[in-house]
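Hi F.,

I've been meaning to write this up properly since the lab meeting, where we talked about keeping a consistent format for the predictions we share between groups. The idea is simple: the sequence comes first, exactly as it goes in, then the structure tokens exactly as they come out, then a line or two of notes. No screenshots and no reformatting. I'm using this chain as the first example so we have something concrete to point to.
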Amino acid sequence: MKKQVLALALAALMVGSLSACGGSTAETTAAATEAATTQAETTKAEAEKEETTAGEVSTEAPGEAAGGVLTMATNAEFPPYEFHDGGEIVGIDVEIAEAIAEKLGMTLEIEDIAFDSIIPEVDSGKADIGLAGMTVSEDRLKNVDFSEPYTTASQVIIVKNESDIAGPDDLAGKYIGVQLGTTGDIYASDYEEEGSTIERYSKGFEAVQAMMQGKIDAVVIDLEPAKVFVSENEGIKILDEALTVEEYAIAVKKGNTELVEKLNGALAELKDSGELQAIIDKYISAE
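Output, unedited:
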């Protein structure tokens, strides 16, 4: 706007100067006036363009800095990966998600839902990622994509100390407790063909309680939660022979390759820096 005012002032001076000269004609004066007007309009357009550009920058910059929200669907009943601590949801997966969100310049929001609702939540787009000690499997790959694995886990068997179950082969014909929708549920279901009965619970500790009460014979669940349950309850143990060994990864809506690439990039950085292992060691440091 200052340029516009200056141009108009110069134009006025030019006109006045030409009028004062005895040799100036009306045509000369008109030409000068037209030139000044054109210059003023050009200057005004440039000023408006500068203002528009400045406005666009100031509008976009906060959005780029904020980065948006990364919504994580989980089931906070799976220590040490995700669990309630007072009024907070904490654990390995939570801290990994927080570290990833920070690297992406985003804010993490957590949705605590039933485990078997996580993939539908991600598939529908209501959640950006599913992070809940989730194993990559062929069935799950039909509905969602996965990031690179961030840790290796195993399915183990919990029994009472006096149980006659010594390994996976002894589960045939037994009552087996699992957490609904988990990998343990999937693998334990294979034993139904061998006469076993699968009892499904919403939470892992509910299955452990049922076993301690004599309602079922064994519990199939991930190693790390199993360690927690055994440490908190007397008279039960984890069998030496694992049922399976598997990898955990982050679930993403099918076809969202851009987000998968961003997650993989962030995970690679966390692995290289040692931060990922530090998070895991914080929760899984003692037997």
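Notes:
The first strand starts at residue 69 and ends at 74.
The chain has a mean pLDDT of 82.

If this format works for you, I'll send the rest the same way.

G.
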